[in-house]
Amino acid sequence: MEFRRITRIAFVALLVSFTVTAWAQKDAGAIVGVVRDESGAVVGSAKVTVTDVDRGTQVVVSTSDAGEYVASPLRIGHYTVTVERQGFKKELAGPIEVNIQDRVAVDVKLQAGAVTETVTVTGQATQLETETSELGQVVDQRRINALPLNGRNYAQLALLGAGIAPAEPGSRVETTCGFSANGARSLQNNFQLDGIDNNANLGDVLNGSAYVIQPSVDAIAEFKVQTNSYSAEFGRGNGAIMNAVIKSGSNQFHGDVFEFIRNEKFDAINPFDIFGQQPYKQNQFGFTLGGPIVKNKTFFFGDYEGERIRQGLPQLVSVPTQAEILNGDFSSILQLNNPAPALDSNGNPTGQNALDCSGNLTYVGEIFDSRQAQTNYAGNPSGLCGVPIGISGGVPTNIFPPGNFDPLAARLAALFPAPNAPQFGDNAFLSDPKRNETDNKFDVRIDQTISQKDNFFVRFSYGDSNEFLPSPFNNVLDGGSFQDGYSQNSARGLAASEIHTFRSNLVNEFRFGFNHLNSHRFNLNYNTDVSKQLGFPGVPFGPDIGGLPSISFSDGTQAIGSSGYLPSIERQNSYVFGDNLSWVRGRHAIKFGGELRFEQFTIYQPAAPRGSMSFGSDFTDNPASPGSGGESIATFFLGI
Q1: Among 264, 323, 412, 419, which residue has the least CB neighbours within 10 Å?
Q2: What pTM did the predictor assign?
Q3: pLDDT of the residue at 122
């Protein structure tokens, strides 16, 4: 049994950047440029007003003596740039699109004239990233909504980026669209949501994903996959950065309602569906809504998405035959035309045939009761001999005598279903249990322009997923793996940011974030004392520790009982505090920053809470010819 609580504190050291252009915040962008007159001379002390077209807010800065200006940080969206200077016509450029982590260069040329005259420049040339060497791919809202996504997980779109490949086979995040960047492992990526750490830190990825919050694709404004030369403020891993931003409200109401449906009636028939087509029903539905609370000042955005999956999961396993269970009849594996060779004490062939303790010839596939074996029999070179479980007239029958079953083994064996798929073998059992999954998630975001100098936003995210993966036996035998049973993943996320402008060239942002992840997995019958009901002694029972011990068989028969390492209960709390100060000084933009991450996680995962046992052929093998006989189910029936 293992119970661990680990607290980790990470501090990202002081970041200082000297560049011509100020760095944007994690989830924002910037507009920069140079203002010149018609002769090409730079124009200092010009007033530059950057206006958010969607929200009506403004950022006002002045050009330096070198004619340069920096407007940052800017929420992603569309902007206009207005430049005014005494003796020149007013210049208006836009609309200009600003994406996440963009630094858009907008150079302006002023014309001589009265300031009451306005020159408007519309249209925007294709933007090349000339302000930084970072390598990344922006996936905007249009592509998020237009590209087909099976399961509607935005992480699938990371594969559009350069150097991105699907997660390595066998990865624990393979089923949740995990990916590898530039050869790094899929767990080495850094997920950011609204500039806040969104990484799952569970010890064995019990939740099955590398992130805490998976927002609805309809709630994402855009995201950027950065794979190289990204800013030091991100820190953490050496893979890619998955930097997403939740939509915010604007001066116009906007929203949508959606539902996506998959149904078995539209699917091809699975060749394993010998009992008819299995049910498959998947519904994903939800809505988004955003708009103004107070125009040009307070905005809201909210979304909800639900998912329901009901799916048949045919499972083909091997079970004992009815003859073996009801009559202890293992005659089908006995080869009466193939005598067992006698081996010496070193396991070497002797050229003789092995005899039982009564001097009868033994055969390949014969089953013995090792409790009656003898060690001083002169008829075999090794001195060992065995007593068959069943014999008639000196010939073995491989049939248990009545009453020779272990009582507990008999009770358990009676619960095995009969083989029902002879086309796959005499022991084949095909079951069609049903998987079900219920997911609910939502996000709420508020943006507030407190004053010309202060902007604030807060976002809360909720996610709850409940899934049942059935085991082959829909009874107390269970037989499920670690992945089967009841799973629950509850995620909560909070992000808040306050941007204060001290003056046009000095801007500070404080950011706080909190993530909580609670992941549980329980086996079938986790709350039932099955062992007591069946008279199985010595098996512990307690909260969440129900079911049978894990019992496996070496002959390929499907294991029964519950998997080890269940129950698994893992929790994570992450607290993030960050502050960035951007200062434009002459031709230099200087950024100071620090981030403190306080992380906690616990893990409760007992290795074998109900115990475990394994049955092989050793204890029913031929002592005089090891390896020629025995059978694991027969060993189980003997109770040894």
Answers
A1: 323
A2: 0.85
A3: 63
